[in-house]
Amino acid sequence: MSAGRTPHPKRWVPTYIVLLASLLILSAALALQYLRTGSDSYLVSAAFVAIIAVYTGWSFARLISLKVAPKSLVTLLKCTSCGHEVVRGYREGDTLFTELDQCPKCGSRMVAEGIFLKEEKR
Amino acid sequence: MCLKSYAVKPGWCVGMNGDTTTNMLLWIIALFTLSFLMQELQIYRIITEVENYLGIIRAARERALLAAKEQVRKYSRSLDPEYVSRKIDKLIEARIIAPTSLDPFGIVKKLKHVLSVSEKTLESEVASLAPAASPHEVQNLVVLLDIARSLNGVYKLLNHYYLVARRFKSLWLLMQLSAAMPFIIEEVRAVEGAVEAFKKSIPIGDSAGPLVAALLMRKYGVQYVVEPVKDTIVAKLAHSNKDIYVIKGRGPGGNTGHYDDAVAWVLQRAKPAVIITVDAALRYEGEASGEVVHGFGVAIGGTGVEKYGIEEIAVKHSIPLYAVLIKMAEVEALSVMTEEVYRGVREGVAVVEELLESLPDGSSAVVVGVGNTVGIPP
């Protein structure tokens, strides 16, 4: 949650892509060796690596389908005279019910009415 | 014994053949060994799984402890950092011993006494370690230590069960641990989520009740605000035709206040027509966060000491007890307040106002904002 952001699980996507590609290449290379030499041990190894690749692919698909919207910490400001509300990113030192900014509409003081985690629009 | 007339020998007869007998014996031995080996493998698999979970909990405990130590050191001036660190290590090991229930009469008073002593002692210890901290910063430090203490307690308890299960290689104990771990991890993550909020002094989901109280105070204005009980404020709203008393923890430090004593203080001055408690309530899976529902009774969690106190007063004076509950998940209750919960708070203010409007003119009421008041000034 440092800097008001929650770590996103999809940060593992590049790792999965590299792992999956390596496994597929290895499996294909072993299958090719089997076709060339006819040795059963290559076939067994290729099948084994392919099973691991399928499992990795399945986990990757689950990760891709995971929908976790990132949230950021925001401060809700409300104008003391016209009631206009503004939501902006939280800044260090923001405290509830303190005057923080000026109203963009009427120029009056704006007070922090809420500090909360807001889902980021994507 | 074999029948020579058979063209194809029956199975039992084949068994008598030298090679086949050895094969059969080998199969039986293999099956017998495998049945044991499978259990051993299963035990090993669960041990690894539980160890991984324990690693997550241990890391959470270390992070919380480090955060608490760093925060205390920020205010410890010239105190030796090693001394501060050792003192905090001792403080998180401190335990609260509940009074005996052999004779349950008066147990709530005893529990209240024990809790009060532990609270005061911890606060004075933290204040001595952080002389540069303001009172509300001390309260936040106390909560940070409480978080580290609770995570330490959870880790030690689970580690104990794990070591016992491993020592006796008890599959059933390990399976129970393994089954409970995902739920425990969820709670640990929730508790850990509170660290950030208390470091920055911003409201958490559980602060919904005090935030409703604070918004009411700001909306109507106050005739006066007093602190008749330690860390608890009572504000009389400047309402045109009703006497509305709002009670909440003082804030903006992380504390919950002593609502029962504050309600008793109000009762010495007025005869409220109703006591309304506003609190965060855990929602079930599938329910929406921030949903506001009505309730009857006293909505206060925790040890039950304050709930008991308010119920006693209400029964003695025949005062109706209403509750306004703002629903949220456990993770949301302990982490920084989410937008859904904040919307629930705004709706909660409207619901309390509706309840107050329904009272006849000239009557009085008490509204208690229950929960941790971190980041919410009086």
Automatic annotation (TrEMBL), chain A:
Domain of life: Archaea
Record-annotated membrane-spanning stretches: 12-35, 41-61
Keywords: Membrane, Transmembrane, Transmembrane helix
The keyword Transmembrane helix is annotated on this UniProt entry: yes
Name used for this protein in its record: Uncharacterized protein
Species of the source: Thermofilum pendens
From TrEMBL, chain B:
Superkingdom, natural source: Archaea
A Pfam match: DUF1512
Segments traversing the membrane: 20-38
Residue span(s) of domain DUF1512: 23-200, 204-377
Keyword tags: Membrane, Transmembrane, Transmembrane helix
Presence of the UniProt keyword Transmembrane in the record: yes
Protein name from the UniProt record: DUF1512 domain-containing protein
Organism ancestry: Archaea, Thermoproteota, Thermoprotei, Thermofilales, Thermofilaceae
